[in-house]
Amino acid sequence: FTDHVALGNEEWNPWDADEKNELAASQQRYEANLKMIKYARSHLEQTSLRVQIWGKAAIGLYLWQHIFGGHLEPADMTAQWREGSQNAGKTYFSFLTGPSVVPGYFSVEAEHVVLVLNGREPAKVAYATQWLHYAQSLMESRKIQHVAVVLLGNEQCNNAWIQPYLKRNGGFVNLLFVTYDCAFLNEEDIFQWPLGVATYRNFPVVEPSWSMLHDPRSYLCNFLGTVYKNSSRETLIEILKQDGLDKLCWIAAREQWQPQETNESFKNYQDALLQSDLTLCPVGINTECYRIYEASSYGSLPVIEDVMTPGDCGNSSVYHSAPLQLLKTMGAPFIFIKNWKELPAILEKEKKMGLQEKIQRRKKLLEWYRNFKAWMRQKFINTLENSFLPSDKG
């Protein structure tokens, strides 16, 4: 991907027409940030909160690298132990991940812990439960004071197993951030968390480049994925073939899901996102899929099948726009459709759209996605600080 990013040595900001001023301003910001980092490092004791994040699910990498913009050492993704740290707000965060991070075999260096867990299927729940019991024992022996959980939830929202661990139900977990449109979200101690990109397939943090924004793209749309029998994905492929639209789009359908990408299939997928104006996002087991966030990373507009999938997901007391409540609430500039029969009309319109209009749309999408991640980061930090820091009652 680096060849799309290399822009000589100049730093370039796609969101400002006056690039010279922007260059000077970004240089100033960079220097101000450096000063801030140096200051923060020398005043570590002044941060009010130290939080250790234990990344025991791949979604932890989305939290740390994509939303927090954090780094990990060593960079090698297969390393047994990886860690990183940063200051944010009043908090010093450290992040640990890797197979060697196991209960009792690493030093707990903060009084406040965020556990990142996978609750997608029974075997994962059993593993997650071991971590919760470990955290509970640390609470009971007063080694830690607070616990929050970021949970990759079940795709049908069968997350009842976590309920007894929540403080509101007599447990010890102060806060829960959970993926998908879980019906028990309340915006008090249970919050929706984005699914993000497939970090378990090593999907990278993508920096927008000049060519990503300005180059014409070869395809109107793309869909690379598994086509399940009797699913709306079959309907989608039929509709594309009927009108010969599959010739204008990059379509690569397979009948079996493959958890591990080959280098070639992954490169194909990234190229398809980069070379298509639209990315088609049919529902899978859940409406929310990695593809939505991955397409946004490359400025390819997601066209989302906006229907509820079977299971226990749905509206909650605070959200009434399921599915994809979080993205809709945040004003995601996507195309939402109820039926793939609407697609030919969308592609017709797409054919007539000029490059300038597409460039503006890409800018809007990339800027929205950048702001979305920044907002999620801020919300996460504020929520932890409000919950973990003693409130000043003076």
TrEMBL record:
GO terms for molecular function: ribitol beta-1,4-xylosyltransferase activity. The keyword Oxidoreductase does not apply. GO terms for biological process: protein O-linked glycosylation via mannose. The keyword Transferase applies. GO terms for cellular component: Golgi apparatus. Residues 51-194 form the RXYLT1 N-terminal domain. It holds the Pfam family RXYLT1_C. Residues 200-389 form the RXYLT1 C-terminal domain. Keywords: Transferase. This is RXLT1 xylosyltransferase. The gene is Rxylt1.
